Every structure is written in C-alpha cells, then in structure tokens.
C-alpha cells in the first residue's frame, strides 16, 4: 500500500515538473503582465525549487514533519508549527 502511494506521489511530482510551464502564453491580468515585465530573467520555477531545497530551515521542516514522534500526529503538528515559527524568525533577522 505504501509503495503504491509513494509511486503515485513520485509520478505526480514528475508530471508537475514536466507539465507546468514557467508562465502562460498570455498573462491573466494587466498586473501579472507588469509583473512579468519587471521580473528578473534569472527567476524561474526550477531555480526557485532548487533554492527552496538549499534552505536549511525548509529541509529541517520537511524532515521534522515527515518523522512522527512518540506523541503521534499532535506532536508532529506542534513540532512543524514551531519549525515554521523558527524559520520565519530567522528569516527576519
């Protein structure tokens, strides 16, 4: 059962990486059009995901959220919430 869920999640991840484009052919609004014009050329979907996984706080959050403790789901949620707060505080400094 877990292998099926893991396979489906992996397949969906691969589809998201392949199917999603950087931006649509026509912007959905004038504000988005202006945003495209002002955006830096090095900002891309793939580079933002790479930057996200290079962020130590994010990696620790993912590891903490995926590792269940003795308290079960409630402790897992509390730990993830504390990690989010810690990450946001560190980001502000």
UniProtKB/TrEMBL annotation:
Family annotation (InterPro entries): FLVCR1-2_SLC49-like (IPR049680)
Subcellular location: Cell membrane
GO molecular function terms noted in the UniProt entry: heme binding; heme transmembrane transporter activity
Keyword Transmembrane carried by entry: yes
Main location: membrane
Keyword annotations from UniProtKB, A to Z: Cell membrane, Membrane, Transmembrane, Transmembrane helix, Transport
Protein name per the record: FLVCR choline and putative heme transporter 2
Species this protein is from: Callithrix jacchus
